[in-house]
Amino acid sequence: MAALPRLETTLGVRYTYADAHIGKNYDSTLDTDLSADKQWSNWVVSGRALYDLNDCWNLYAGVSQGFRAPNLNDLSGNLTTRSGLASLGSLDLDPEKFLSYEIGARYEMDRASLAVSAYFTDIERVIIGVPVTAGSDTLVTTNGQDGQIYGVEAEAIWDVTDRWRLSGFASWQEGDTRSDDFSGGPVSEDYISRLAPLMGSVALRWTHPDDRFWIEGRVTAAAQADKLSARDQGDSQRIPTGGTPSYVIASLYAGWQATEDLLVTLGLENLTDEDYRIHGSGQNEAGINAIMGVRVRF
Fold it and tell me: Which CATH number among 3.40.50.2300, 2.60.40.10, 3.30.70.260, 2.40.170.20 corresponds to the domain 1-192?
């Protein structure tokens, strides 16, 4: 890492080696057991730069590579997935590769801070299941997708007084893919699967004068997630028809620093007992619920 009076740069390098050994795997297309040994290796590089404009503002940017080797399920899976579709693994797979860019700015003073960032990720050779033939309910695993995803995130904190703090965050993203319609078939453009909707949260916290007790109210909201890929539209187990509905939930949290080494926390979540689901999760979240936590340090 090298540093100048106002500029700081960081460079990282990582080497990955992956080895998969499959002693016996039944291949339904050949009606026989197969064994295989597969190896993959890759160097990935990342770089970041931080520039201080003044005592309050700084700018940062980064570029990083990503690499994911196929796992055993990708290579040998033979299971039912996504609303009853049959999914077959494949021994003829290449690793996935990613290239991400990020740029942002931070502002910080005694009572306020703000952070805004934008990102873009280029995706190559994603491992997905595509129909064996047009309209087939059987999927074969292949490096059948390229794409990109980009978005903006923001976070702000304002200490209104010594006891009251207002904070919030918001995020937005878009993405598209180019995927094989079926094995060896044409390529179609679509939304990226399980694209997150516009969402955000606002919280107001009060802290006791001796700093041993605090209480916080938080409201979290998400817009309707209706930008669905063809795969999402066919996955009715995880995503309702027409997309995941929007929601607004309110929660209340409190903490008590009983001693220097003992912290007790309590959360009352989803106070209005909202029936909601995080997009793509496949299950509805809990209704009104309470969570208690105790942390002891030795």
Answer: 2.40.170.20
CA 131 to chain centroid, in Å, comes to 26
Q: Are 280 and 243 in contact (CB under 8 A)?
A: no
Bridge partner list, 12:
46
Per-residue pLDDT of the chain (298 residues), as tens digits, is 444 678 999 999 999 999 998 887 766 666 677 788 899 999 999 999 999 999 999 999 999 999 999 998 888 877 656 556 677 888 889 999 999 999 999 999 999 999 999 999 999 999 988 888 887 878 888 998 999 999 999 999 999 999 999 999 999 999 999 998 888 888 999 999 999 999 999 999 999 999 999 999 999 999 999 999 988 998 888 899 999 999 999 999 999 999 999 999 999 999 999 999 999 998 999 999 999 999 999 8
CA distances from 268 to 81, 252, 284 (A): 35, 5, 17
| DSSP 8-state assignment for residue 225 | B
User: What's this model's pTM, rounded to 2 decimal places?
Assistant: 0.84
Cα–Cα distance for residue pair 258/212, rounded to 1 Å: 7
